[in-house]
Amino acid sequence: MRRLPPRPFPARSALPALAAIGAFALVLTGCGTQTAASGSSAPAADARSGDRTLHAHRFMHLTEPHEQTGMTLLEGPTFGKDGSLFVVDVTAPAGEPKLLRVDVDTKTSCAAHTDDRGAYTSAQFSPYDGRLYLTDYAHGEVVSLKPDGTDPRTFFTGEVEGAAMNPDDLAFDRSGHLYVSDSRGLSEGKAQGRVVRIDRSGERATVQADGLAATNGISFDADYRGLWFSELTENRISYLELDEKGGAASRHTAIRVDAGIAQTDSIAVDRGGNLYQALHGRPAMVVYDKHGERLGTVEIPGRAKGLESATNVAITPGGTKAYMTVSGPAGGYLYTFDALAEGTRQSNGG
């Protein structure tokens, strides 16, 4: 997730106001009853010297801008064990779906969860307990749900080393411990962002990196040796090497992203170790290998009118079909393209 553009979209600092409406949770049912309009679902790719364009095609229209919040913003696509694709709508108001379940075979969607409080910016399943974890940016919390969207629980809340979080994206290590990108300082324009580790019990949280410029995307590399994370207001991707205990061993700037007016959003990593860097302010993703070589750009046809950001991607586990979340004044959409390698946990959610 990212700072929201000022056009018809409120500033990201408005998220707490969008979310702070109450405190009880409501679970919605009725899956498979909403069918979305779609376009061609067969992605293609053209090779070009030193780079290539990965053509993404419209798959599904999921959401319309909400009257109460003035926008819709899809994020955190992740596949469940049953093959369902889960997507969060960051600015959905109370009573409207904040978590959607998509059947990619029938191109239908349904509400999986809502409440009157959270502003959820990412989603990912835990390898430890199988629950679905969501980051609540507005309230500095991480919550978890059963795979069907029921049984909401607060997994973590409160300050971390003296400061509350603005948790944006998350990644799990193999043991189920969480690493969270904390965008603290974004609304003030200060480099106070952090990478926070929360153990799988939710009882201990520690800062692994700080002084960051609006930490946003975060994902383990293919070998789980370290974390890639993006800094929204510096348009750069850094690498955080981890030690045997999961703590920070070293950190360096790895890739500087030439994005023009766009900014670095969420990150996904495929089985080949390739990085998919989403762009806020442009409906596209930039793809790099682990050495920082730019491999290609995922583009939607004609940069479709009314679509302004591509926030994240889920690549089918064991396959290469990728589902990219794209949003703007025209609504929230899924676009598909052929990824460069198969999907894994690190290319699903977060």
Structural notes for this entry:
With 350 residues, the protein is mostly beta strands. Helix content is 1%, strand content 48%. It contains one helix and 30 strands. The chain has one helix at residues 15-19; strands spanning 25-26, 34-35, 44-48, 51-55, 57-63, 74-79, 85-89, 99-103, 108-115, 120-125, 132-136, 141-145, 153-156, 159-160, 163-164, 167-172, 178-182, 193-198, 205-212, 215-220, 226-231, 236-242, 248-256, 263-269, 275-280, 284-288, 294-299, 309-315, 321-328, 331-338. Strands 1, 2, 6, 7, 8 and 9 form a six-stranded antiparallel sheet that branches. The chain has a six-stranded mixed sheet with strand order 3-4-27-26-25-24, with no helix packed on it. It has a four-stranded antiparallel sheet with strand order 5-30-29-28, with no helix packed on it. Strand 26 and strand 27 (294-299) form a beta hairpin. The longest helix is centred in the N-terminal third of the chain and has 5 residues, at 15-19.
